[in-house]
Amino acid sequence: MEKIYQELKKTFKERIKKDYPLSEFTTFKTGGKAKIIVFPENIDEVKKILKISSEYGIKTVFLGNGSNVLISDDGIDGIVIITSLMKNIGIENGYIFAECGVKISSLLKFLILNKKGGLEFLAGIPGTVGGATFTNSGLKKEWISKRIKKVDVLDKEGNILSLKDSSLKFSYRKSNLEGYFIWKVYLELMEKNEEEIKEEIKKFIIMRKKKQPIGERCAGSVFKNLENGIFAGKIIENCGLKGYRIGGAKVSEKHANFIINTGNATSSQIYSLIKLIQKIVKEKYNIELETEIKLIGKF
Fold first, then answer.
1. What average pLDDT score do residues 89-96 get?
2. Percent of the chain surpassing pLDDT 70
3. The domain defined by 89-210 carries CATH number 3.30.465.10
4. Residues 84, 90, 92, 97: is their CA dihedral positive or negative?
5. d(CA 283, CA 220)
6. CATH no. of 2-82
7. pLDDT tens digit sequence for 252-282
8. DSSP string covering the chain, please?
9. SS in 3 state form for 154-195?
10. What phi and psi, each to the nearest 5 degrees, are found at residue 190?
11. How high does pLDDT run on average in the chain?
12. What is the pLDDT, as a whole number, of residue 228?
């Protein structure tokens, strides 16, 4: 791994870290060390990382804002690519485009300035455009996929592909982009009054603050809602699990589908709480809750 680190350091200099804790880059603020963390600024640098990792047979993991993930306390024995420096955003042929590392909050600010509406429902989500596209972020009836025109991705062989129409498939909290590096997303949005956009954004932020533990160390909704429209949070609440904790991991008292790191939680404690919730829900309702957050590493 030292040889790979030295080879990458020639290109990335101060934008590479070795044996560094991933807890600094996740919203849970948990997770062990990564052997190598790299911060590419453009797609050519991503190609270089993937080429080297392929040559040495090293695992690569993509990370945006670190929300919606739980990383093992054992860390990652490979290369973690953090996309935070890939944040170009603009207008091309009438479409808004944003690179994977653009934060949702930054995208919305850009849309306000350019009087483009249609994504206000994403306000308050602490993720990036890449992560939101991969998981098809949204609400009950509004999803980012409804606004996506095209997605430029990098495949495992280092080829840039433009996926659109039938090449893109989205469903509840899911896309067919597993295995690709999401580079750039093109969005088809509508003309809208600046003040109207601001008001809509404000409305969604107020709604999320009222219902969700915004500002806490958490990773968003832990479990997917059921296909019949029943909310996972309501089921967990009915099991009397609000406020239940294992170590520093606690079920939010504001919204039962959120687990909070109260300050000293480990990923193992959060994972144990997830498994306990699934066990109790299964015993009481014969329902198998499926995790929405992505587990990375050994659990």
1. 96
2. 100
3. yes
4. positive
5. 25
6. 3.30.43.10
7. 999 999 999 999 999 999 999 999 999 999 9
8. -HHHHHHHHHHHGGGEEEEEEGGGGSTT----EEEEEE--SSHHHHHHHHHHHHHHT--EEEESSS-SEEE-TT-EEEEEEE-TT---EEEETTEEEEETT-BHHHHHHHHHHTTEES-GGGTT---BHHHHHHHT-B-SS-BGGGGEEEEEEE-TTS-EEEEEGGG--EETTEES-TTSEEEEEEE--EE--HHHHHHHHHHHHHHHHHHS-TTSB--S-SBPPPTTS--HHHHHHHTT-TT-EETTEEE-SS-TT-EEE-SS--HHHHHHHHHHHHHHHHHHH---PPB-SEEES--
9. ECCCCCEEEEEHHHCCEECCEECCCCCEEEEEEECCEECCHH
10. -105, 155
11. 96
12. 82
The pLDDT value given to residue 254: 96
For residue 13, give both structure tokens: 């200099």
Taking 90 as the threshold, does the pLDDT of residue 156 lie above it?
A: no
* Alpha-carbon gap, residue 129 to 98, rounded angstroms: 7
Catalytic residue set? 173, 221, 292
CA-based R_g, the chain, Å: 20
User: So where are the chain's domains?
Assistant: 2-82, 89-210, 214-296
Q: How confident is the model at residue 139 (pLDDT cuts 50, 70, 90)?
A: confident
Compute CA 153 distance to the chain's CA centroid, rounded to the nearest angstrom.
Answer: 16
Per CATH, which fold does 214-296 belong to? 3.90.78
Which residues does residue 60 pair with via DSSP β-bridges, in sequence order? Answer: 79
Convert the pLDDT of each residue in 65-91 to its tens digit. 999 999 999 999 999 999 999 999 999
CA–CA gap between residue 75 and residue 21 (Å, rounded)? 8
- Report phi then psi at 106, rounded to 5: -70, -40
